[in-house]
Amino acid sequence: MEVLASLPAEEKVILVGHSLGGVTLALAADKFPHKISVAVFVTAFMPDTTHRPSFVLEQYCEKIGKEDDSWLDTQFSQCDESNPSHISMLFGREFLTIKLYQLCPPEDLELAKMLVRPGSMFIDNLSKETLDDPKLSR
């Protein structure tokens, strides 16, 4: 957001968001539509900008474990019991094999298995943002 805010008025950018990056891309497009030439969502979350930025992830997390088995052996957990919106995810071996690296050479899959680390869903940070946040204003 700071980079977009710092661009000269006549300069435009092309933004690409993948996976969870789609949430940030949607927020940037809403805040700086005049500074974005093209926004590309590549297999990304594509939230609306009517609700708070965390809305689509909060809705999705409510489904995890209930009716959604598409994440296979990926593990979701609360990072902090006192803060239920602070959720991490860790891609499982089955998920990596079937969903992410199914078309890759075996050595790429093995490297991914060795390098996988827990990552944040960013719900905690996004839930604090609002569409009228002055630091993100146009």
From TrEMBL:
MF annotations from Gene Ontology: methyl indole-3-acetate esterase activity; methyl jasmonate esterase activity; methyl salicylate esterase activity
AB hydrolase-1 domain mapped to chain residues: 11-82
Keywords associated with the record: Hydrolase
Domain of life: Eukaryota
Pfam family, one: Abhydrolase_1
Any single biological process term in GO: salicylic acid metabolic process
Keyword flag Aminoacyl-tRNA synthetase: no
Protein name as annotated: Salicylic acid-binding protein 2
